[in-house]
Amino acid sequence: MSVDPMPADPMRAAGRLKGARPIAAAALAALALLALLGAALAPVRHRVRLERAPGNPVQRVVLDSRSLLGFRRPAWGAALDGAGGSWGGARTGFFLAPAAPLRVELRAWPGFRRSLDLAGPDPAASAAAAAQLVDQGDLDAFRRWFVAILEQQLGAPSPAWQPAQRDCAGLLRFAFREAWGPHTDAWRARVGFQGPPVGGDPDWRLAGPWRQAFPTPEGWRPFAKGLFLRQLACVPLGRDLDGARPGDLLFFARGGARDQPDHAMALVRPDPDGQPVLLYHTGPEGSGATRAEGEVRRVRLDELMHHPDAAFRPLPENPAFLGVYRWKVLS
User: Fold this and answer.
1) CA pair distance 90, 80, nearest whole angstrom
2) Which residues contact 57 (CB under 8 A, 6 or more apart)?
3) What is the pLDDT of residues 21-58, one digit of tens each?
4) CA-CA distances (angstroms) from residue 179 to 52, 139, 147, 231?
5) How far apart are CA 97 and CA 322, in angstroms?
6) What is the pTM of this model?
7) Can you list the positions of beta strands (E) in the chain?
8) Is residue 222 pLDDT above 80, yes or no?
9) Cα 48 to chain centroid, rounded
10) Which phi and psi angles does 34 have, rounded to 5°?
11) Beta bridge partners of residue 157, listed in sequence order
12) Sheet holding 296-300, edge to edge
C-alpha cells in the first residue's frame, strides 16, 4: 500500500523564500560595496614623470597612481628594474644618481610597464663643480683645516657641534662645514679651536653650495646622512688604501640581521713613524637610562687591520668595507 507524501505547506515555503530574499539582497549589497571600494582604492591607472634639478645629481622617478574613481593611491608591486643602487619606492618615488646614461623599466600591478631613458650627470653642472676649487693652494688649505678640526674633537667636542649631530656622519659634516672659514678669532672662540693656525684659509667663495649644504635626494640640505655623503658628496677611489691622503674617508657597511647606517672614518695626520691614523665617532651607545653620547676615537691603520670585528678591517676581501672616498670638492 503506497502512501502519498505529505503535501508541502505553502505558507512555510513562502516563508523560506521570503527569508532568503534579504540574505541575497545583503550579499548583493556587500558585493556592490566591495566593487565600489575596489574602484575607489585599487591603483590601476599609472602615469610616470621624471624629476631632475640643475646641479643635483639625484634624479627621481615618480609613479602617479590612481584608482578608477580618480583617488591617488600608492602603486601595488612597484619596482624599478635596471637601476642598481636606487632607493625609495611607490610612496616617495624612486631615487638614483646614474653615473652615465641609463635605461630603466618601471613596473606596477596590474601589468604596467614603462621604459625610461635617464641622462647621466649634467656636463655643465659637472664642469662648474670641477671649477669650484681650481687652485691647489685652496685644495691643500681646505684639507689641512678639515683634518685639524677633526683632530680637535679628540679632546672634547666643540661647543658649536650640536649634541644631536654627534655621530660618525655628523663628525664629517661638522669638520667639512667649519673648514671653509674664515678662521678668525671670533670663529676660534665659537668652535673652541685651540692651537696655532694650520695655514691660510681656502677661498670660501669657490665652495659654492658646499659651504653650507650637501646634496640629498631633496636637493641641497644642511643635513645629509652618511649614505648620501658617500653616494652624492664623495667620489670612490677604490678599495686600495695606497693612494689615500689625510682628509679622505673610509666607509663600512653595517649589515646583519638588522641593517644599520654606514659607518665612516676619516684619515688624519700620520703618526711619526709614518703609520696612517684614522678618526671616527662611535655614535650613541646604549639606550634609555644607560644611553651614552659616544666619543671620537683615534686608531692606527695597522691596528684597524686587526680589529676584533672583521667587518671593520679595510681589506679588499672584506665585503663590509665599501672603499676609500674623497670629497667631490677635492677630487
Assistant:
1) 10
2) 97, 121, 125, 215, 232
3) 677 666 676 676 666 666 678 888 999 998 877 666 77
4) 30, 11, 9, 21
5) 17
6) 0.64
7) 45-52, 59-66, 79-81, 87-89, 93-96, 102-108, 112-118, 214-216, 219-221, 234-238, 249-254, 260-268, 277-281, 296-300, 321-327
8) yes
9) 23
10) -60, -40
11) none
12) 234-238, 321-327, 249-254, 260-268, 277-281, 296-300
DSSP state of 205: G
Closest CA to 147 of 327, 328, 331: 327
Complete DSSP assignment for 177-195: HHTTS---HHHHHHHT--S
Q: Residue 236's CB: how many other CB atoms inside 10 A?
A: 14
User: Coil, strand, or helix at residue 163?
Assistant: helix
144-178: per-residue pLDDT in tens?
A: 999 999 999 998 899 999 988 999 999 999 999 99
Pairing between β-strand 277-281 and β-strand 260-268 as defined by DSSP bridges: antiparallel
* Lookup: cell for 195: 692651537
Please state whether beta strands 234-238 and 249-254 pair in parallel, antiparallel, or not at all (unpaired).
unpaired
Buried b (16+ CB within 10 A) or exposed e, 82-113: ebeebbbebeebbbbbbeeebebebbbeeebe
CB-CB contact of 107 with 115 (8 Å): no
SS3 266: strand
Q: Residue 247 in contact with residue 320, Cβ under 8 Å?
A: no
Backbone φ and ψ of 218, nearest 5°: -95, 10
Q: How confident is the model at residue 258 (pLDDT cuts 50, 70, 90)?
A: very low
The answer to whether the Cα torsion of 291, 293, 295, 296 is positive or negative is positive
